Amino acid sequence: MPVAIANHYSGGEYKISERALRLIAENVQRQLGVSDYNVNIVLTGDEEIRQLNLTYRHLDKPTNVLSFPFAEGTDANLEKLPVRELGDIIISLDTAEKESNRYNQQLIYRLGWLIIHGFLHLLGHDHERSAEAARDMEELEQQILIKVFSKRSTMIQLAINVDHVATIRQARGGSEPDPVLAASLCEMAGAGGIVVHLREDRRHIQDSDVYLLRKTVKTRLNLEMGANKEIVDIALDVGPDMITLVPEKRRELTTEGGLDVISQKKKLAKTVKKFDKAGIPVSIFVDPDVDQIQASHDIGARFVEIHTGRYCDAEDTEQRDVEFDLIAAAAEEASQRGLLVNGGHGLNYHNAGRIATLETIDELSIGHAIISRAVFTGMERAVKDMLQIIQAARQHLF
Ligand code: PXP
To answer: Beta-strand (E) ranges in the chain?
Structure first.
């Protein structure tokens, strides 16, 4: 394994996904063209790094990162190394966290920068050599940082699920309220996409709605669906801008959990291929589980939608923090694998902001909370209120 991560941190539980760090480090290796060299990354705290700093640099204070090259020198000498070893990068999680707070950055982003900095030292760059060397190193760091974190965005989109409008219509079996009109009002208020779920039992959205929406939606029509033949054929005929595969049970009130991609890889891969051939990108609705994300990537999905339901339903702050960290790790995994990342289910005006702070998430898919508020405020106000919350959260303005 080219990147090995050792965790020496003893300062308590650390909310960091080692797997995400390894993906970042492997991405950095690729950018630097040294993927076939081994490197060890040691995560530790201020005390251990202070001791190392004292022993090897005669500086009795903690620091953020130390690099110990297997062989001193520049990358020109790499070829002469008898083994494919770059060396060790030691990172203090304590200092990284303090720095991430100081610079108002997410911890994972700070750690990514420290990994890049450590790699460049292993390859012979040294900002302490001269002002010019410092400038060159900083420039290189920025270039790699942009590539490694390129999927992060300061913008977040809001896709609105209008199934609930159809649910009210179906209660009387007539033609009002109209989900197609609701979709247009959502778009006029600033929604970046419209989502509808064509269920096997047609309990809310009807086939005719989907065909009409295909004609009227100006942003992006995302058709949510189970991977069954009848619905797949309709989707291929309609040609939405993307589809989202979800598990579907007849008796559930709403989609209850993410799709288990791992146990049905073959079947789902076939479905993804069909849509790929038709030029329709596929998203897969999965629980915040890095193995499900990897499986989604393996079968050719272009997007994942991370299920936020457990985070929304958490009964206390501790549980909510645990669920939030799982979502953050899953989104990081997906982003590092080049997938576009959506999130949704159960999000409302109180809990969506925190999810929107995750710069790895491109779009939130929200239905029930917005349609419920629209009953009292009108659609325009309901959509704009949500947009304001998630966009302010993304810009760290809250
Ligand atoms: N994403 C998916 C995959 C869903 O199934 C749903 C519910 O239809 C949503 C998002 C929207 O969830 P909510 O209505 O709770 O906002």
So the answer is: 3-7, 38-44, 65-69, 85-92, 157-161, 193-197, 221-225, 242-245, 282-286, 303-307, 340-344, 363-366
Over residues 77-97, the pLDDT tens digits come to 677 777 788 999 999 999 999
Each residue's pLDDT tens digit, 227-280 = 999 999 999 999 999 999 999 876 677 767 899 999 999 999 999 999 999 999
Q: Can you give the pTM of this predicted structure?
A: 0.80
**Catalytic site positions:** 197, 224, 345
Q: Which fold has domain 157-394?
A: TIM Barrel (3.20.20)
Does the beta carbon of 246 sit less than 6 angstroms from any atom of ligand 1?
yes
Among residues 59, 123, 124, 113, the alpha carbon closest in space to that of 91 is found at: 113
Query: pLDDT tens digits for 93-118?
Result: 999 999 998 988 888 889 999 999 99
Domain 3-148 has CATH 3.40.390.30: yes
| CA-proximal residue: ligand 1, atom 12 (nearest) | 345
Q: In 3D, which of 149, 191, 242, 140 has the Cα closest to residue 385?
A: 191
* Residue ranges of domains in the chain: 3-148, 157-394
